[in-house]
Amino acid sequence: MDNQVDEIKQKLNIVDVINRYLPLKKRGRNHIACCPFHGEKTPSFTVSEELQIYKCFGCGKSGDIFTFLQEYERLDFREALTELAAIAGIVLKKSEFVSEKDSLKKNLLEINTQVAKFYNYILTSHVLGNSALDYVQKRGVTLDTIKQFGRY
Ligand SMILES: [Zn+2]
Asked: Could you tell me the distance, in angstroms and rounded to a whole number, from the CA of residue 26 to the centre of ligand 1?
């Protein structure tokens, strides 16, 4: 994932990208515009070609081409990635479409699975689980049932 993100960052110049959405004026080493994220009449939105970042000295918003597109067009990371890849002429690999949200969900599921395995082990194979095992067996839950539900 990071490789293609880096590839896109290397291929695109933040000044050209932001210029597509917001006309920039060159001032010294930077480019400036009136900030799209807060109302202002004198430009404090500054883009550094050198650092490939933007920063607004009025409202404090800052970031790179990905955060700019996410904020400016109200996109999630995946949508911004797709749009910037298209601008850069890069074909995304399928795995690049895994959004941050999806990978968070995957991590939570993995943690949940590990915790379930741990408690399954305590219940069925450790001395600490003896009294709980007695209890569930008295309630009619057999070891077979526990094993069946404990398969991951
Ligand atoms: Zn601002």
From this structure: 18
